[in-house]
Amino acid sequence: MSKAAVLIIEDDPAIQELLFHTMSKEGWKLLQAKTGEEGLKILKTAGVNCILLDIMLPGMDGLKTLKKIKEIDHCKNTPVIMTTAKGEDADIITGLELGADDYVVKPYSPKVLIARIRAAIRRQEENISSSSVAVWQQGELKLDADRHIAMIAGKEIDLFATEFALLKHFISNPEIVFSRNQIISAIHGPDYPVTDRSVDVQILGLRKKLGKAGDMIETIRGVGYRFKAIG
Question: Most exposed of 14, 33, 105, 157 (fewest Cβ within 10 Å)?
Fold first, then answer.
């Protein structure tokens, strides 16, 4: 993890300095950008393990920047943590739907933020280093974990990293009912500070991309979700 690279896209000099000072102790390679445009320019030539992205940026805002980030091939599965002073549901939901893995609302604890970055980098490293072949299929829905591909009727589906992790968790554990906290622990690790609302939004986005196959992810009222197997 000491060689991991983190890109900070933040226009506030004081926050940039605080984050750089705090995060440099982790041994990460830190890249900094003051605008979305500058961040995208960096990403087109450099690979990173995690991105901190402020929503309120001059010029291109954070949400538009996030959309552009996910259009870069080598960044599609790079975890993005949104930072925002707004904390409004509409902005948070939009960010999650565009592929953000998480969000933190300012003012935030640098220690908590670092813990989230560590978890995001660890998940990415585990996905890259995993060599076991695991393929699941339910009806026309197929997931190949080794190749990191999900398909419906042979056609590949474009899933964000968190959506892929959700689908893998569900399809590999059919008929088991999971609470939202259990889903968070399975995807992000124990004690990861993500809200129930985040889980609901990301599952909603996954269902939309799966089309009719999304009906296999059932809501169990008052409990959570389960994946209903075919046959």
Answer: 14
Q: Evaluate the CA torsion angle 192, 194, 196, 201 in order and state its sign.
A: negative
For strands 80-84 and 50-54, give the pairing. Answer: parallel
Is the Cβ–Cβ distance between 203 and 193 less than 8 Å?
no
- The crossing angle, in degrees rounded to 10, of helices 62-69 and 36-43 is 10
AA identity, residue 201: V
Query: Which residue shows structure tokens 């009906």?
Result: 215
Chain centroid, CA 143 distance in Å? 18
Beta-sheet strand order (sheet of 5-9): 29-33, 5-9, 50-54, 80-84, 102-105
> For the whole model, what pTM was predicted?
0.65
The answer to whether 31 and 51 have CB atoms below 8 angstroms apart is no
Interior angle at CA 157, CA 37 and CA 213, nearest 5: 135
181 membership: H or E segment, kind and range = helix 180-188
